[in-house]
Amino acid sequence: MTDGEVEQVDKERGEVVLKHGDLPSLGMPPMTMAFNASKQVLERLSVGDKVRFYAEIVKGEPTLTHVEPAGERAPR
Ligand SMILES: [Cu+2]
């Protein structure tokens, strides 16, 4: 999974802006960008949240397929 920080949540557009780390699944270096996300995912996100996520290209657009709070995982 990739680390991200929520910068913006736009429920009307179904988008979330994340500052993300290396994202090899999409061939991206760290950057800040918008992802499509389901209503269900958007409801759980607030600006400033630190998350870990998976993203894929869905219908030609970067889309969050799984998001969890960064603190939820057990420390290693
Ligand atoms: Cu990106």
Task: Summarize this structure as a short list of keywords or feature phrases.
binds copper (II) ion, mainly beta, 76 residues, five-stranded antiparallel beta sheet, 51% strand, single chain
Task: Give a structural overview.
The protein has one helix and five strands, in the order βββαββ. The chain has one helix spanning 39-43; strands spanning 2-10, 15-20, 31-36, 50-58, 61-69. It has a domain at 1-44. The chain is mainly beta. Strands 3-2-1-4-5 form a five-stranded antiparallel beta sheet, with no helix packed on it. It is 7% helix and 51% strand. The protein binds copper (II) ion (CU). Residues 20, 23, 28, 31, 33 line the site of copper (II) ion (CU).
Structure classification: mainly beta
The topology string of helices and strands comes to EEEHEE
* Helicity, as a percent range: under 10%
Compute the number of strand runs: 5
* Helix count from the secondary structure assignment: 1
Say which molecules are bound, naming each kind only once: copper (II) ion
**Which term fits the overall shape?**
globular
Low-confidence stretches: none
Mean of all residue-level pLDDT scores: 93
Radius of gyration from CA coordinates? 11 Å
Strand content is: over 45%
The order of strands across the largest sheet is 3-2-1-4-5
Q: Determine the N-to-C terminus distance.
A: 15 Å
The largest sheet, given as strand count, sense and whether it forms a barrel, is: 5 strands, antiparallel
